[in-house]
């Protein structure tokens, strides 16, 4: 690690699998799941208060650029599916923490659209990052703690949201 880190806040479906996938690129230091982008302090799946499930990624920009991280995100989730198809809490959204991140998000989305990677146009929203309301411990690193669950077994508690 170089000592310098950067924060990315990304949403693209259920946060549990997003967190599991986002920990893989070299340069990712840590991840945590939570809610962001809405109003209110106690979002739930039933009452998200405008929030989206998101993953905060702390990364080393000398080992993994923000652009590379965004390109990876666009490979692991369907950025062409709108809220009417996936629901507002699973929408595709990038929360930028600097003007440079905003510009990079805009350029990456334009490049993804130009590539024809997805059957439809990217609907990913770009918003200024606000606070991340961290999910309870039982939702953090879910697939690491319960590796049998993705294989079809019953989880140790009902998954009421990510």
Molecular structure report:
This protein is of the alpha+beta class. The protein contains five helices and six strands, in the order βαββααβαββα. It has a six-stranded mixed β-sheet, covered by helices on one side. α2 (66-76) crosses α4. The longest helix has 17 residues, at 99-115.
Compact summary:
By secondary structure, this protein is α+β, with helices and mostly antiparallel strands. Helix content is 27%, strand content 22%. Helix 2 crosses helix 4.
Descriptive tags:
162 residues; alpha+beta; six-stranded mixed beta sheet; 6 strands; 27% helix; 22% strand; globular; disordered C terminus; peptide-methionine (S)-S-oxide reductase; oxidoreductase; Met_Sox_Rdtase_MsrA_sf; Met_Sox_Rdtase_MsrA_dom
What is the averaged pLDDT score?
86
- How many angstroms does the end-to-end distance come to? 29 Å
* Alpha-beta classification: alpha+beta
Number of strands: 6
Strand order of the largest sheet: 5-4-1-3-2-6
How many distinct helices? 5
Largest sheet: 6 strands, mixed
Write the layout of secondary structure elements.
Layout: E1 6-12, H1 15-22, E2 28-36, E3 52-59, H2 66-76, H3 83-86, E4 92-96, H4 99-115, E5 125-128, E6 133-134, H5 142-145
Parallel strand pairs: 4-5
Antiparallel strand pairs: 1-3, 1-4, 2-3, 2-6
Helix pairs in contact: 2-4
């Amino acid at each position: 690690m170089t000592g310098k880190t950067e924060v990315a806040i990304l949403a693209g479906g259920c946060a549990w699998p997003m967190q599991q996938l986002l920990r893989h690129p070299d340069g990712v230091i840590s991840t945590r799941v939570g809610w962001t982008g809405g109003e209110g302090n106690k979002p739930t799946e039933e009452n998200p208060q405008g929030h989206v499930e998101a993953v905060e990624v702390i990364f080393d920009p000398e080992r993994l650029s923000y652009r590379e991280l965004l390109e990876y995100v666009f490979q692991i989730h369907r950025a062409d599916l709108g809220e009417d198809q996936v629901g507002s809490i699973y929408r595709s959204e990038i929360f930028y923490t600097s003007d440079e991140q905003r510009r990079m998000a805009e350029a990456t989305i334009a490049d993804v659209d130009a590539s024809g990677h997805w059957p439809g146009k990217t609907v990913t929203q770009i918003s200024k990052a606000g606070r991340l309301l961290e999910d309870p411990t039982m939702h953090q690193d879910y697939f690491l703690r319960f590796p049998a669950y993705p294989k079809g077994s019953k989880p140790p508690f009902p998954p009421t949201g990510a």
